[in-house]
Amino acid sequence: MGWNEALRKQLFPAQVAPFSQSPIGNGGDGISLAVERLGAALDDGGDSAGLWMPCSIRKNADGSQSVWPHILLDRAKPGLIAVGPNGRRFVNEADSYHDFCSGMIRAGLSKAWLIVDSRFIAKYGLGLALPGGRGVARLVRQSYLIRSGDLGALAHRIGIDAEGLQTSVAANNRFATLGRDDDFGRGGSTMNRFNGDAAVSPNPCLAPIAAAPFYAVKVVPVELAGSAGLRIDEDGRVLDQSGSLIPGLYACGNDASSIFRGTYPGPGTTIGPAMVFAWRAARAASAGARRATRDLPR
C-alpha cells in the first residue's frame, strides 16, 4: 500500500498516521494498475488492512521529520505506561507493535503518550533518547520529549486529563508491587517477559513510576506493511472479482493479500510469505511458459 493515498483512504482506519515506513517510492502502483486496468480483486486483508508500528516523530530544523519506531527497546521495559487523552491505559504496552497499535485503533486513538520517570529514562532511554539517557536535554529543548516535575503538570503540558494520568500511574505502581497487571496482563506472556528486564522481579515488565522528573513522548500508529492487497491463489496467480485467474499476472509480498488475514504472529510475517509466494509464482510462470512453448506450431 505504501504511500498510495487513495488506497490508504479506502482501506486503512482513520487513526493511522498519513505516512508509511516503506520507501517513498512505494506508491502501490502494482495494486492500482491491476485493479483499474485488469479488474483484479482487491482483498481487504481480513482483521486488519495493514500492520502497524507505534512511532514518535521529531520535527527537524530543516523541515524534515525523524521517525522512531518503538519496537522493543522501551515499551516492554518496567516503569512505562501508555495513555490516551483521558489519561487512561488502553492496551498491554509490552505486546507486539502491531497489537499495541491495534489497541489504539480499537480505542479510537490517533495518538497516545508513553509515560516514564527519571529512573526509567536514565536506564532504558525513550524513543530517540537512547539507553543511558543520552540526548535527553536536547530532545526536551526540541519538544520531542516533554518533561515536568510532577504528573499533574506533565498532563497539562501534553493536553491530557491529569486525574486520569495520576490514577493510571497509581494503579501501575500498585501492580508493580503485586507483580501482576490486573488491567491488561502486562508481563503475562513469554514475549512480554523476554522483552522486559530480567533483573526486575517479580515481573520484568512492571516497575513504579515515581522518581521525578517525569517524561512523555507522543506516539502515532504508522503503517509498516500491507495486509490488504491483490487476491491470489496458492501459486501467486492474481484473481479477478469473479474468482477467475488473470492470465500471466502474479503477485507476492506487499502487493498480495496476506495469508495471515491481518494478524501478526511475529517477525517474518511479511518476508516469509513474500519469499514463499515469489518461489511458487516463479515455478507456476515457468511451467506455463514451458506449456506454451510445447504448444507452438512445429
Please explain how this structure is put together:
- There is one protein chain.
- With 298 residues, this protein is of the alpha+beta class.
- 44% of the residues are buried.
- It is built from 9 helices and 10 strands.
- The mean pLDDT is 94.
- The longest helix has 24 residues, at 271-294.
- The chain is elongated and about 85 Å long.
- The strands form 3 sheets. Strands 2, 3, 4, 5, 6 and 7 form a 6-stranded antiparallel beta sheet that branches.
Which helices and strands, and how do they pair?
Blueprint: H1 5-11, H2 29-38, E1 42-43, E2 50-59, E3 65-69, E4 81-83, H3 97-106, E5 112-117, H4 118-124, H5 136-141, E6 146-148, H6 151-158, H7 162-178, H8 190-195, E7 214-226, E8 229-230, E9 237-239, E10 245-250, H9 271-294
Helix pairs in contact: 6-7
Salient structural properties:
32% helix, 10 strands, 298 residues, alpha+beta
Average pLDDT for all residues: 94
Residue share in β-strands: 15-25%
Shape: elongated
Number of strands: 10
Helix content percent band: 25-40%
* Strand-pairing-aware structural class: alpha+beta
Quick overview:
With 298 residues, the protein is α+β, with helices and mostly antiparallel strands. The chain is built from nine helices and ten strands.
